[in-house]
Structure formats: C-alpha cells, structure tokens
Amino acid sequence: MESDCRIPVACCRPRVLVLHALFWGLVSLRVFGAALLSEEKTAVVKSVITPCWLLEEFVVTGECVRCNDFDSKSQAACRQTGYVEKVNCTKSSREEYKSCRSALMEEHLFWKFEAAMLGLTVLFAVLVVVRQRWLDRLASEKVRRQIESI
C-alpha cells in the first residue's frame, strides 16, 4: 500500500528541518530588517519635506490644470499625474501645489480601459470559436475512425 505523503522521507530528518528553519529565518530577517530600515529613513525624510496639505486641512484655491513642460520638470507635484491644483493650508496659511487627477485625464483612461476590454473580449471570443471548431473536428474524426473500424 502506497503512502499519500508527497514529502520525501529525507526532508523530514531533524537536521534538514533545522537547516530549512534556519534558512527561512535568515531570509525573513533580511527582508523584514530591510523594510524596517527603509521605514526609519523615510520617516526622517518625510518629516522634513512633508507638504502642509498632508498634515492639516486645506482649501482648493485653483482648479486642476495641466502642467507645462517647465513645471513638469521643476515641481514635484507635477511629476505624479501631470496635473496640479493650488491649495491653501488653513492653519499655516501656506499656498502649495497638490497633484490632482483631471476629468479629461480620467475620461481618457476610462476609454483606454474600455478599448482594452473590448479587444480582450474579441480576442477570447475568437479563441473560443477556434478551439470549439478544433474540438468538433477531433470528435468527428474519432467518430469516423470508430465507424471505419466496424
């Protein structure tokens, strides 16, 4: 009678189990240690560079507009979406620029998504038809062979 266990017996030896535990422990320590170190570094940087609209209430004073070429390279807010709006922070009364998503950009993204979904629908519909014809041909050939063998 065969065993249903798919793990080889050699993998269950104590020495192998300890080596596996040690290896995966070191890997996870390396990964989590790197994540913790990067969080500490970004926390220090974020406290210095954090815009006021992330920390306090703000009022939008200028509508969402597309950045020109110069602003795209000089302002950090323009680099994210290519659109920016002017905001006024209430507590500190500072005026800053905040990245935003325009209705025009959202509409273009929506139609790109719709076109991609339509294209995938047509592609998979064609694949289904081709596969069904292939399976029908195989089935008819099998029936033909069975009839010929009689």
Count of alpha and pi helical runs: 5
CATH architecture of the domain at 54-103: 2-Layer Sandwich
Radius of gyration: 31 Å
Low-confidence runs (pLDDT<50, min 5 residues)? 43-47
How many strands, what sense, and barrel or not for the largest sheet?
4 strands, antiparallel
Strand content: 5-15%
Do you know the CATH topology of the domain at 54-103?
Signal recognition particle alu RNA binding heterodimer, srp9/1
User: What is the SS-derived class?
Assistant: alpha+beta
Overall pLDDT level: 81
Span of the ends, CA to CA = 41 Å
Helix proportion range? 55-70%
What's the CATH class label of the domain at 54-103?
Alpha Beta
| Dominant shape | flat
H and E string: HHEEHHEEH
How many β-strands, per DSSP?
A: 4
